[in-house]
Design goal:
about 375 residues; alpha/beta; Aspartate Aminotransferase, domain 2; Aspartate Aminotransferase, domain 1; four-stranded antiparallel beta sheet
């Protein structure tokens, strides 16, 4: 008995290469795109371990938990790391990056996250890229949460290593990801004797055996389901149009923020400056006498599929995240999340205006 998800034909090199080309068009890049068979942490770690070593001085920008992870990898590689940490409710300013580079002219590598879904902020990469390019450092960007949600132009912004994944705004699986690699980055990786080789982390293996080999033979058997799902994501974005998809995310973010403010109950935007707020998730600070994790648990008890989550780590007690990416960048998902959150707040004794929140969402969406 056949099954559509089990009896799959092998995924061919031609199919694999075609998806890479389509991702390149989506990102408006002329650089090489390498699809890797794993969640985005795979190419992110591969980029850092490929580009960094004992002679590297790295500026690691921390605007959320992933920046902390990158710093750990860089130190493990033997790099000297200069951390530029800003409060998680803000974005890093280009001037701050310029000051750090001026104070440490030896910096030759910069790691940065575009949008932090975990904290709800997003960074001005275009302006930061200008600063980094003028300094001459190699720049790595984690764009997993931002791709298809807001403008992302690696070539125009001077990004040398750009990692994307389909599990957020693209609305796809977490088991596959991709890295955009500039020629300058390839040269840096090739010159690094400690860059992973003959390793699942190795970008150089893909360069030498896949790209330089004319994309004729894959390094290993691709995961068909993940690749087919990635194809479906790209199909949908191409059919709808990238601007339309980004517009849905912007509309969802604006409506969620307006609805949360109208809801009341002591909630406040965790990222006060709307210009620094990511389009994939709206984060909210709960009142001092409330516990975010308890509120989220109460809201999810009725419907575990709601796009709500408490903050991670130290933020678990004070921050709530309303996700609105991929299929959740929709009016119904925003309304459902805010309604459940309002009901949970009311059950805890807070004064809320659920009807006012719903009206604010509708006004914002129609506007």
């Amino acid at each position: 008995m056949t099954h559509p998800f089990l009896d799959l034909a092998p995924y061919t090199p031609a199919q694999f290469a075609a998806v890479e080309r389509r991702l390149a068009r989506l990102l408006s890049t002329e650089h090489d795109v390498v699809i890797m068979q794993g969640e985005a942490l795979l190419p992110l770690e591969g980029c850092i371990r490929g580009a960094a070593g004992p002679g590297t001085t790295a500026l690691n920008v921390i605007t959320g938990p992933y920046g902390q992870t990158f710093g750990g990898w860089l130190r493990d590689c033997g790099a000297t790391v200069v951390d530029l940490a800003v409060p998680y409710h803000t974005a890093v300013a280009p001037e701050q990056v310029a000051q750090a580079l001026a104070a440490h002219p030896e910096i030759d590598f910069v790691s940065l996250v575009h949008a932090e879904a975990a904290t709800g902020n997003t960074n001005p990469v275009a302006e930061i890229g200008e600063v980094v390019r003028a300094h001459g450092a190699l720049m790595m960007l984690d764009a997993v949460a931002s791709v298809a949600a807001e403008p992302l132009l690696p070539d125009a912004w001077g990004v040398d290593l750009c990692v994307v994944g389909p599990q957020k705004a693209m609305g796809g699986p977490a088991g596959v990801s991709a890295a955009v690699v500039s020629e300058r980055a390839w040269q840096r990786l090739a010159a690094n004797p400690r860059a992973p080789r003959r390793s699942y982390l190795s970008l150089l293996d893909w360069k030498e055996r896949w790209i330089d080999g004319g994309r004729a033979a894959l390094l290993h058997a691709p995961a068909q389901l993940e690749m087919l799902a990635l194809e479906a994501c790209v199909d949908r974005i191409e059919q709808d149009g990238l601007e339309t998809v980004m517009g849905r995310h912007a509309a969802a973010a604006a409506a969620t923020r307006a609805g949360a403010v109208a809801l009341g109950g002591g909630l406040e935007p965790f990222v006060p400056d709307v210009r620094a707020a990511a389009p994939v998730a709206t984060t909210l600070r709960v009142p001092a006498d409330a516990d975010a994790a308890s509120l989220v648990a109460r809201a999810l008890a009725a419907d575990p599929a709601l796009p709500l989550a408490a903050g991670g780590g130290a933020l678990a007690g004070e921050m709530i995240r309303i996700n609105h990416y991929g299929p959740e960048a929709a009016r119904g998902a925003v309304l459902a999340g805010l309604t459940a959150l309002g009901e949970a707040l009311a059950e805890s004794g807070a004064t809320v205006d659920v009807d006012g929140a719903r009206e604010a969402v509708e006004r914002s969406w129609e506007g």
